[in-house]
Amino acid sequence: MTDKALAKIFKALGDETRLEIVRMLAGKERCVCAFLSTFSMTQPAISNHLRVLREAGIVQDSRDGRWIFYRLNPDAFAAVATLCQLPLSQPKIERIDPLTEPGACPKQKEESA
Amino acid sequence: MTDKALAKIFKALGDETRLEIVRMLAGKERCVCAFLSTFSMTQPAISNHLRVLREAGIVQDSRDGRWIFYRLNPDAFAAVATLCQLPLSQPKIERIDPLTEPGACPKQKEESA
DNA sequence: ATAACATATTAAAATATATTTATATGTTTT
DNA sequence: AAAACATATAAATATATTTTAATATGTTAT
Q1: Predicted structure pTM score
Q2: Which distant-in-sequence residues (6+ apart) come within 8 Å of B64 by Cβ?
């Protein structure tokens, strides 16, 4: 998963409405009208939020008659969980000295040369 | 953690530059100049990205002389990891019938009454 | 076929976010 | 105390996102 795709997932989840849609989809598959009756928002607004989630790969949809059902894609959450482990699995924090890091603090570096 | 705070975390992580800043901070504490030399971006732009991360609770900072060091706050990632488990721990997906859900598909519901 | 339904798409307006330029703040060195 | 350094803040502009209103698409019922 590229950082671009991962950022897209985070951006999609960075909205309270979409976060609640995700919660509503935990273990459940729902049609669009379920969200329409939950949020005080126009139908195109809901449709747009679902599009953002879909294009980020967070939800998948399938039509059944006139309804379109949405469900979560666990792969997207697995990718996010992986990034979360990055900071959680680091036991101790090492302070990087600005003066010794390559390219860091350019003005200082030039003077110390 | 409120959904509002969680959405703020996701929104903050939903940007490629900030995502890379987070990766650079895995197990490390770095001063702002480290990011200045990494990204081709003005100093205030970096400073703004750090502010977004700070206000979301993703990073913490402390001044040491003229430098300000940034490090990750594991609590924020723990909160995100918790939400990730929501879909990952659901074994099977149940389809919710639009007709039987309370308030769902209003027009249909009125007719079926 | 026509009408009604469920949802998506488009275009426009409203709102939020990011970037830049200029300036301010706090710290260290001289 | 003055100059230089590292970073933050403010104001202005540029860009992206969200919302709404109008319309289109695909499906089912009549």
Answers
A1: 0.91
A2: none
